[in-house]
Specification:
This protein has about 270 residues and is an alpha/beta fold. The protein has helices spanning about 10-15, 25-35, 55-65, 80-95, 110-120, 140-150, 170-180, 215-225, 245-265, and strands spanning about 1-5, 40-45, 70-75, 100, 130-135, 155-160, 185-190, 190-195, 200-205, 230-235. Helix 5 (about 110-120) packs parallel to helix 6 (about 140-150).
C-alpha cells in the first residue's frame, strides 16, 4: 500500500463556494505539495472537478504530473453512466488507474438498484481501470457491499473512508467488516469524538493522522490480507480558526505532521 495526498488533504486551501481563499490551491499547487512531502500519488477529488477543465489546463496538469513521476487518481461525484464514461476517458488521458466516485450529489440520490444498473452498464468502458465507490454518509456499509457483490466481476470496489460512515450511524469496525475485502483505495482521515460540555451529544472533529481516535496500524493490518488496497490517501477535516489565513496555516501544518507519522508507519507495511 502506497501513501499519497488528496485535494481533500487541503480542503480549505482548495476552497469551496462558501470559503474561497484569495489564491486557491490548484492542481499545480497540489503537485508542489507532493514534491514538498516527497510523495508520488495525488488523488484529485471533486473539489477540483476535472471534467470542467479545458483541454489546455488538463494537458498542462497531466504532462507535469507525468514528468515528475506523480501517479494521479481521479475523483468525482454523481454516479451516472455519462459521468463514469467521462472520467474513464480522463483517467486514460491522465495515465490514472483509479477513479473514486461518490454516488450522490445535490438533488441526486439513486437507489441501490439504479447504482447496480449503472455499474453494469459502464463495466466495458472501465476496462483496465478500477472504480472505487466511496462510503459516503447515506448508504450503510452492508448496502454498499451488496451493490459491489451484485455487480460481480466488474472492475469496481470500495474507496474506504475512515470517517464518512459516522454519518450513516456506523463505526469503522462495521465498515471494515463489511467492506474490507472489497477495498481498493483507503482514505485516512483521523478524528476525535468527544462529548459536548452540556453532555447532550458529541462533536466529531478532525485531527492530524495518528493523534485522533483512529487506530491506523490496526486498520492497515486488517486490510493487508485482502491484497486489493493499493493506495492510501491522506484526507483531513481541519477545524477552522477564526480567520481563513490561520486555518490555511493550520491545515498545512497538520498535513506535514500527518505525512511524517504515516511515512514512519508505512515503512512497516511494505
Amino acid at each position: 500500500m502506497r501513501l499519497g495526498l488528496s485535494s481533500y488533504t487541503y480542503g480549505w486551501a482548495v476552497g469551496s463556494p462558501a470559503h474561497r481563499p484569495a489564491r486557491p490551491l490548484d492542481e499545480l499547487g497540489l503537485l508542489d505539495r507532493c514534491q514538498e512531502h516527497s510523495l508520488k500519488i495525488l488523488q484529485v477529488g471533486d473539489n477540483l472537478p476535472l471534467h470542467t477543465f479545458d483541454a489546455v489546463r488538463l494537458a498542462r496538469f497531466f504532462d507535469r504530473a507525468r514528468a515528475e513521476g506523480v501517479e494521479l487518481e481521479l475523483g468525482a461525484r454523481q454516479l451516472t453512466v455519462e459521468r463514469v464514461t467521462t472520467y474513464a476517458a480522463l483517467a486514460r488521458q491522465a495515465g490514472a488507474r483509479l477513479i473514486r466516485f461518490v454516488i450522490d450529489d445535490a438533488g441526486y440520490e439513486p437507489t441501490p438498484e439504479a447504482v447496480i444498473a449503472i455499474l453494469r452498464t459502464t463495466a466495458p468502458v472501465l476496462e483496465g481501470l478500477v472504480l472505487g465507490i466511496e462510503n459516503h454518509d447515506r448508504y450503510p456499509a452492508r448496502t454498499l457491499r451488496a451493490v459491489i457483490e451484485a455487480v460481480g466481476g466488474a472492475p469496481v470496489g470500495i474507496c474506504l473512508d475512515t470517517a464518512n460512515s459516522l454519518g450513516a450511524g456506523e463505526g469503522l469496525e462495521t465498515v471494515v467488516r463489511e467492506l474490507g475485502r472489497h477495498t481498493v483505495n483507503l482514505h485516512i482521515k483521523d478524528v476525535n469524538i468527544r462529548r459536548v460540555p452540556h453532555l447532550m451529544g458529541f462533536t466529531v472533529e478532525g485531527r492530524p493522522a495518528g493523534s485522533g481516535a483512529l487506530d491506523i496500524p490496526a486498520l492497515l493490518a486488517e486490510l493487508r490480507p485482502f491484497g486489493r488496497c493499493a493506495t492510501a490517501i491522506l484526507e483531513q477535516w481541519t477545524p477552522p480558526e477564526a480567520e481563513l489565513e490561520a486555518t490555511l496555516v493550520k491545515e498545512a501544518d497538520w498535513a506535514r505532521q500527518s505525512v511524517i507519522f504515516l511515512k514512519t508507519l508505512f515503512a512497516q507495511f511494505p
